Amino acid sequence: MRNDTLEIIVNGKKITIPTVSVNTVIVGAGAAGLKCADALYQQGVRDVAIVVDKLGNGTSNNSGSDKQTYYKLGVFGDEPDSPMDFARTLYQGGMMHGDLAYIEGLGSAPAFFDLCRLGVPFPFNQYGGYVGYKTDHDPRQRGTSAGPKTSMFMFRTLLEEVRSRQTSIFDRHEAVKLLTDDNDGEKRVVGVLCIDKTRFYDDNYGLTAFCATNVVLATGGPGELYKISVWPHGQIGSHGLALEVGAVANNVTELQYGLASTKFRWNLSGTYQQVVPDYFSTAADGVSDKRYFLHDYFDDMPHMATNIFLKGYQWPFHAARLQHGGSSIVDIAVHNEIAAGRRVFMDFMNNPTPASGMAEFSIDELHDDARVYLEKSGALQETPYERLVHMNKPSIDLYAEHGIDLRDPLEVAVCAQHCNGGLRGDVWWQTSLPHLFAIGELNGSHGVRPGGSALNSSQVGAVRAAQYIAGRYHHAPLEAGQFNQRVGEQIAEFANECGRNLETKENAVPLAEIRPQIQERMSRAGAFVRELDTVKAALSEARELYRRIVENGIACPGRKELARAVEDRHLALTSIAFLEAIEYYIENDGGSRGGYMILDENGDRSVDSKRGNELRHRSENQDKRKEILEIGLEGDAKIANFAISPVPVRPLPDDDSWYETAWADWNEGRIFG
Fold first, then answer.
1. For residues 303 and 507, what is the distance between their CA atoms, to the nearest angstrom?
2. What average pLDDT does range 574-583 have in this prediction?
3. How far apart are CA 448 and CA 482, in angstroms?
4. At 363, phi and psi to the nearest 5?
5. Could you tell me the end-to-end alpha-carbon distance of the chain, in angstroms, rounded to an integer?
6. Residue 244 DSSP label
7. What one-character-per-residue DSSP string does 398-443 give?
8. Nearest to residue 317, comparing CAs of 274, 262, 260, 399?
9. Digit-coded pLDDT (tens) for 362-373
10. Do residues 236 and 411 lie in contact, with contact meaning Cβ atoms separated by under 8 Å?
11. Contacts of 480 (CB under 8 A, 6+ apart)
């Protein structure tokens, strides 16, 4: 690691920017970023720095569910599994390249057992077998869990490992600009500019430049795009950061949505639903006009109660479960209540309340899959709360840690939960820009995926990026003089933007107005119920907001808000990209699939329930599974013109490798292409 300074002229005044030079800078310190630092160390790359806006504030350390799933290769008992079988499951959902699916299968067991070695408490039986269970879209028992805090355990054990190796962590450093060089005719990333939030009062606004051979983005999903979201507060992702310098994104139409609590943001999957709690809604005051709204959708108690149960392992909203009384009708019912201005609650102290003429709740009368599960689990207690105590007391304790007693009604909504799209990566998780890697949720490798596979992907992708860096990109970064010459103008331009945002300008966009607009718009047009005219209107609004930001700047109340202003500019650009992709998909015969439905008055499907047939929508266009939508800027980021290309999905590879030749290719470094 080398420390230097860089001098730039801002508004006629010379200011000094501290610079740090390393081989690799990792942006983000969640489970993916920390794993990459760990893997780089194991590969012999020690010249590494991690920058993070606030250590411990990310999704890995602050999200989960009843028993947060880690989806891995099956490794116990007599049920056969293989990396290619694993790959087929990932691949069959569509919008995922076959070679990436195969790589995630191959890397699954090594990544999982490394976490076990580090101390993540995945349970095993008396024989040492890591027993699995089925998760959504999973044909085998590949899921495992360390409880509600699986990713938290991953974060903390990996952080301990990284700290033990004395890898430099620059906390309170927010990445605000990727620094690029295209002097050789090909644009590549050569570093990243950060705001040190402990020095925002300095003349240089707290700017610190990191000169690096490689930049690894590990910043997670764009949770702050949505008003109704279960991502922890403050999750921006780095989509806008990368898009503005020309990185290509893909699959950004694909997100997951599911029932979650709103006061404390947490997914309500698994046993939270399998104990079969009651649901009710109220007026906006949260007290009056109590309604058991599921009565409107289900004819009898066994059907209604079983569908509540099914929201456990069919937890994400899925367009295929809207017909014939499927479980996603529960999501639609919740959505309809909230859209009408009401509030929705789950009640763990009461079994589902019967409608007039409906039989009382009885476990014995549940459909077989629900009844047998509860019987085998010994969960035959009188109330949902007692059943939850029996099956999963840590899920109760978790809420208690946040001051919430599950004996009280719990407010819920169908929330944006995970982004399956992101930046396009190759088989080493390198983006379309050389030396820029995207790992974890920021990488858009999955289309429709099995639950929990994102955790496996985060670990496998982190290792793959580290392997490529060690194999091909382990050389030193630019010398100080070269770095200053090639990025000085970029840094000066950004510093001038900071100065403009602090000026009092009549037409500047008030900072406090930007994010609420983006979030309302995305939850209205880009969530799990989508309609073309609404998307078009939202896209027009998004473009107008971004135009105003670019032309007039952002009115910041003070220096402390400069980083927030950059975040919101990036979110504004990201929202355009997402809405552009959604509009393109719908206009080109895209149908309802995975986590969303496409409303269309001429559609061939409807939501079928006791209320009749409503919400006419398109069925899935299966041909669209064979392509991935890629989106990238054309020209200047200030204009925000995006080009969209449907790219054929690469097939599953026919891997018939021979050991002797594979060994030779590995020794000679030919595996890196």
1. 57
2. 98
3. 44
4. -60, -35
5. 29
6. T
7. HHHHTT--TTS-EEEEEEEEEES-EE---TTSB-SSTTEEE-GGGB
8. 260
9. 999 999 999 999
10. no
11. 2, 4, 6, 19, 21, 211
Per the CB < 8 A criterion, the answer to whether 212 and 21 are in contact is yes
Q: Which of 566, 571, 672, 584 lies closest to 628, judged by CA?
A: 584
Other Cβ atoms less than 10 A from the Cβ of 510: the count is: 10
Reading the block at residue 527, the tokens are 């969530």
**E-strand stretches of 13-96:** 13-27, 48-52, 69-71
Give 542-561 pLDDT, tens digit per residue.
Answer: 999 999 999 999 999 999 99
Q: What is the rounded CA–CA span in Å between residue 260 and residue 177?
A: 33
Q: Are 325 and 307 in contact (CB under 8 A)?
A: yes
B/e letters for 325-349, b = 16+ CB within 10 Å, e = fewer, are bbbbbbbbbbbbbbeeebbbbbbbe
Structure tokens at 172: 């309170």
**Alpha helix (H) residue ranges in 449-607:** 453-472, 480-502, 511-525, 532-552, 562-587
Looking up tokens 């893997």 gives 39
Q: Count Cβ atoms below 10 Å from residue 125 Cβ, excluding itself.
A: 10
Type of residue found at 651: P
Name residue 531's amino acid. E
Region at 270 (left for phi over 0; alpha for psi -120 to 50; beta for the rest): left
Tokens of 380: 């035959």
* DSSP letter (8 states) at residue 588: T
pLDDT band with cut points at 50, 70 and 90 for residue 379: very high
pLDDT, mean over the chain: 96
- What b/e readout covers 457-491, taking b as 16+ CB neighbours within 10 angstroms? bbbbbbbbbbbbbbbebbeebbebeebbebbbebb
DSSP for 289-314, please give it.
S-B-GGGGT-SSHHHHHHHHHHTTTS
Structure tokens given for 390: 């029996």
| DSSP label of 603 | -
